[in-house]
Amino acid sequence: MPRKTPRPGFLHKLALVPGERSEARSSAPELAADHPIAVVQAHSLSTLVQRELERMILAGDLAAGQQLREVEVAAMLGVSRGPVREAFRALEESGLVRLEKNRGVYVRQISVREADDIYELRAVLDEYVGRKLAQAITPLQIRELRQIVSRMEAAASSNDVGAYLTANLDFHDRMVALTGNDKLLLVYRRLVNELHLFRRRALERGGTLSVSTREHRDIVKLIADGQAAAAGKALHDHVAASRERMHASLGPGERLQDRPAPASRRKRALP
Questions:
Q1: At residue 79, what are phi and psi to the nearest 5 degrees?
Q2: What phi, psi does 47 have (nearest 5°)?
Q3: Fewest C-beta atoms under 10 Å: which of 26, 29, 186, 209?
Q4: Exposure of 119 by Cβ count < 10 A (0-12 exposed, 13-18 middle, 19+ buried)?
Q5: What is the DSSP code string of the chain?
Q6: Sequential pLDDT tens for the chain (271 residues)
């Protein structure tokens, strides 16, 4: 695995040993929740490693199909192998890596057909989210969603695909979180993780960022207006449009119509 540079400040978060943390906590004023030292105090080392690897995978720094070697990752992040091993297990549960017995750990790479299946499921879940939020969302929560859309608009105007994807993930994740359904959020996050690399390639096509941003702005307005059915349909159609963009981004031989259907699907198609 080629050596990658971790996010600036990551190693700084790990700088204090346990004894130093206790002394600092007793003598220093209370720190903001996002302060690097506060992050270390609130989370385990394996969690911090997991978050950094997740960031690198979602940013494309670690490519789909790439092998992650425990020793190399530990050296790259300046930690021992134990937290890396625990982080790998958590990343497997979240759908970002796969662990192959006697072979190693690899960044997850999903097939076009699997991506297509996930889009179908996401469309159903997002329609439910839109309907539910339109019936119960607060003005403060609407303001929060609009702020995220503003971030998306700024990223789209500068054609910053990375920043756009981050804001887009935040938007949908926050909407699902606002439903208050923890089980739904867990399932949804895994689905989104699995689709991420496909969505990056689709959004890099010219003109799609501004179109996607307008769709998000319209969705928020329908939710704010309490139009449950329309908001649900808009979210369903938004995912369907994303699915079409994904297919449009595929090259010859990658599209579903270029490949034979699995046996299970061929059987279902018979009269």
A1: -130, 175
A2: -65, -40
A3: 29
A4: buried
A5: ----PPPTTHHHHT-S-HHHHHHHHHHSPPPPTTSHHHHHHHS-HHHHHHHHHHHHHHTTSS-TT-EE-HHHHHHHHT--HHHHHHHHHHHHHTTSEEEETTTEEEE----HHHHHHHHHHHHHHHHHHHHHHHHH--HHHHHHHHHHHHHHHHHHHTT-HHHHHHHHHHHHHHHHHHTT-HHHHHHHHHHHHHHHHHHHHHHTSTTHHHHHHHHHHHHHHHHHTT-HHHHHHHHHHHHHHHHHHHHHT--TTTSGGGSPPPHHHHHHH--
A6: 655 555 544 544 444 333 333 333 444 455 454 544 444 444 589 999 999 998 888 777 888 889 999 999 999 999 999 999 999 999 998 888 999 988 999 998 878 888 899 999 999 999 999 999 999 999 999 999 999 999 999 999 998 888 888 899 899 999 999 999 999 999 999 898 888 766 665 555 555 778 888 999 999 999 999 999 999 999 999 999 888 877 877 766 665 554 444 444 444 433 3
What are the structural domains of the chain? 10-107 (1.10.10.10), 112-256 (1.20.120.530)
Could you tell me the two tokens for 95? 């759908």
